[in-house]
Automatic annotation (TrEMBL):
SUPFAM superfamilies noted in UniProt: Family A G protein-coupled receptor-like
Family, per entry: Belongs to the G-protein coupled receptor 1 family.
Keyword Transcription regulation carried by entry: no
Transmembrane segments: 15-35, 47-70, 90-110, 131-151, 163-185, 225-244, 256-281
InterPro entries per the UniProt record, alphabetical: GPCR_Rhodpsn, GPCR_Rhodpsn_7TM
Keywords: Cell membrane, G-protein coupled receptor, Glycoprotein, Membrane, Receptor, Transducer, Transmembrane, Transmembrane helix
Any GO CC annotation of this UniProt entry: plasma membrane
Protein name, as recorded: G-protein coupled receptors family 1 profile domain-containing protein
Membrane topology designation: Multi-pass membrane protein
Principal place of residence: membrane
Annotated ranges, domain G-protein coupled receptors family 1 profile: 27-279
Keyword hit for Membrane: yes
Family annotation (CDD domains): 7tm_classA_rhodopsin-like
Amino acid sequence: MEREFEKSLCLGSGIPFLFLSLLISVPNGVILIALYRNPLRCFRKAFSVFLAFIAAVDLFVGIVVCSGGGVMRLLCAFGEGSIPRDGDILVILGYIGINSSILLVTAMSVDRFVSVVCPHFYLRKIKPRKLVLCNTIIVVFSSIFASLQLTGISMDVYLLIDVHLHTTFPLVTTTLAYLGIFFVLRKHSRVDFQRQSTMPSNSTLHNMRRINATRMGRKFATTSFFILLFLILSLVPYFVTVLLEANCSDCRGQKWFFVLQESSVVFLFLNSAINPFLTIFRINELKQSVKIVFCPRR
């Protein structure tokens, strides 16, 4: 790659990285503070564990990965550095953040499936402490898998495993989970509608709670589905470049391929900026908690 072209490429991607660092860090920090303060006392449920872990991973991506990527690319543009490559510490940290997000969202979709299909089992057996342990194992596993790049493993083999482990498996798992959620929620909606139509003026407290729980479950399931959707959309350009690099040997030395590769890496982290806004606007309790914590009334 020509040095002047590399400098222009570093400058063109370094500025978006620094902008993404600010755009990711601030809202995810706000969410974590709101979850910790918990002014409405409504985030003691299991689902809140996933919100906290996803926000923490995204905050790590914003503060460490994106800011470090921006600084490294600006040094490349104005100094003697180069674009971070596979095997570099910064790239490994990026793998940790992205892979953790993918597996956390996959685990969250399975969690929503179990809570909708087997609500009584979920309430009895699934506790926040167990989900904290599960999510911690996911983050540790992603860290170990990303660190395999330091062992000298072939990057072609590594990327092949990475594609199937963090794309094929999550996509199949989440698709099956949300299909199950869709059919179960549709069945619950029919049952609730029949109950309301047969005894509209005699709704017991138990029925009202059941209906409210169904609505809340539907809202959480829809929110986690949108998180998954935006995650997949942000991954598509990156994995297209991976497939091109693996199957098109003539493309590797072309300038347009380097531009596409850098653009896909920048696009990869957009999901971490979308997640906090999506969760705040989709979950009213979180929105109200943020307002109480950061915009207190006198």
